[in-house]
Amino acid sequence: MKILKNKNLKYLLLLGVVFTLSCERNFSDNIEFAKYPATGEIFVDGFVGGLDYFPFGDSFAEAFSVDENEAYLGTASMRFDIPAFGVGYGGATFPSTAPRDLSSFDALTFWAKASQGADINEIGFGINGDNNNKFRVTRRNLPLSTVWTKYVIPIPDPSKLSQEKGMFWYAEGAESADDEGGYTFWIDELKFEKLGTVAQPQPAIVNGVDQISQIIVNGTFLIPGLTQTFNLSTGKNVTVSAAPSYFEFSSTDIEVARVSELGVISVVDDGTAKITAILGGVKAKGSVEVTASRVSPAPTPTRDASNVISLFSNAYTNIAGVLIDANYGGQTTKSSELNIAGDHMISYTALNYVGFEFQNPTVDASDYNFLHVDVLTNSSTSANFNIEIRDRGTNGMLNTNTNTGAPSEDDKRLVFSVASNSITQGEWMSFDIPLTGDLASQKGNLAALIFSGDIDFLLDNVYFYK
Amino acid sequence: MNRYIKIDKNSMFKTFVLMSMVFILGSCSEDETQQVTNFTELVMADEFDVNGAPNPLIWDYNIGTGDNGWGNNELQYYTNRSENVTVQNGILIITAKEEQFNGASYTSARLLTKGKLEQTYGRFEARIRLPYGKGLWPAFWLLGDDSKGTEVWPQIGEIDIMEYVGDKPTSVFGTVHGPGYSGGESIGKSYELVNDRFDTGFHVFGIEWGPNYINYYVDDVLYNQITPEDVPGEWVFNRGPFYIILNLAVGGALPGEPNEETKFPQTMLVDYVRVYKNSNN
Description:
The complex is a heterodimer of chains A (466) and B (281). With 466 residues, chain A is mainly beta. Helix content of chain A is 5%, strand content 42%. Chain A folds into four domains: 1-34; 36-193, Jelly Rolls (Sandwich), CATH 2.60.120.430; 206-293, Immunoglobulin-like, CATH 2.60.40; 305-465, Jelly Rolls (Sandwich). The longest helix of chain A has 23 residues, at 2-24. In chain B, strands 1, 3, 4, 5, 6, 9, 14, 15, 16 and 18 form a ten-stranded mixed sheet that branches. Chain B starts with 10 loop residues before the first helix and ends with a strand. In chain B, 43% of the residues are buried.
């Protein structure tokens, strides 16, 4: 801790000098205002320079301790006891009590080992309550072994971190019974460093893909897949997720679409605009081409609420527990919920299939006769658009033959097909689907709708009625 | 899994040893037992000041894939097209591209001074910024003249002033090949930068070569001396002359193949090549 004391003394001296000068003359154009301390060390044999420890709300609070029996260097290390599957997870942030100037460093580094081979789900820095985690960085699935090894988490753009409190955070838990849990890992010599070998930046948005998105005027869209990649002295690349504020976004037409520093595209008028980004002076790979169009609201339902079980509509009170995207394996479909001047609707793009589930609770439609949905698409297609209604039976789960997609065990379904040549572009299509076929005798545990086809579409007013 | 980051614990120690070496060699330059010479008389300097193709009075090209990928299973087809070799703004740019070309998957360039500038002994140096990525293999080296084909490698001798593989961006190596010490048995040493790398800025790579010694340096650090005592075969460097080669290979036994992280195109940038001789010669 001697080092630290000396450093603090230095800052005091520096501050003293600035103060003295300022007494004698006015600020010149070249004046450098007092900076925050450029202390890189976080944990050496104890915390350096005033640190807090905040376990995440629902985490295992006793996960962290200081271990004086294990150390890579010196006398102590940070110890993390990760609970077994089902018991919870370890997760915490370690903010500095006062901002630090990290702009002269290029990476967060540490030595780590674990009691067994393990991957830390998320680890990084930049969780900072003062600025809403504006400069959060996450390295995912960091592999640990039982041997002390040095790890590097590069700073996407150090110049952004002139007053940062978020020194370090992590979240690790067993994600399944097969995932590792009930083990310990240790971290030592945790510090920001200037390695000088963090090079060849390759920033990306949308994970480096050029994406085309149809967005409704007044709709918003969060740009996904923001990363920064550096080549390290090992010759290998390391990619971290970087918060939107590391990037400078631009739009080719701000009369159509604008991007906030939080990476949210707001569509203000119809037309097209291309969104690109720069990080630290380097153009990011990937883009979003926004095709914006105005949309009229879906027809307002007129059926009496007493005859309706509503899943998604502004006209009725919806049941709880609706999942607009069950995120099935192999799906290409992207989903988002839109709020257009108070009218909610669901956008599905790049459809192959997508599950709209309501299993908590299921719907007992024994006394109901129809499903109503409103669908709007601008896509031309040669494929049918299918709406499958699924009853999960009494065994409490959806059962699907993963080869055919057909129901198995005690599940039943009805598939309603809209022929491609019956799909009208640019106007709302209303479908009233009778609960007949296999559902005629089994509709007490309706649990999902599965949409399939190859269109982009909007969905609204999803309800059963009699 | 734990090989993600390797830190060379010895790097500080190495630096210390290197610095000691410099000190010893430098301070002993007047000692008659040391074979250190200062080569100060400029014989040739290509500063690459004229845009376009490199100066044809100095540089020639190897074209194609040679025998068996230039003897190393290299993957590139060498051309003299401006896409692969050009001078722009004071810099010689050798570019390795990923493209289908005459049966090869990559193109690049290899320049040589054979028959144009050949010399025995001297100081040969170049200031270069290297590419990066697995599978890239740039080199600045000398090859002995083959006396019109009457002699073959390794008897003709090879002095690799600088070699580097793109997945070790902090390290270069200097090597000699001769009879009994060629290929995998060659004699040399690597030099590692601390807190810096070779693909982010220019560095000077050179040798001072005289009778019975070759001194290797990077920037202002002399990091190795090779003498006849160091090689397990005939010292073939007291005869000459040798010519210069600058090339950027892709793939081959030494660097391995490019992988999914390797970005193309990659460039080897050469600020200058200078050749000196001993003013007393």
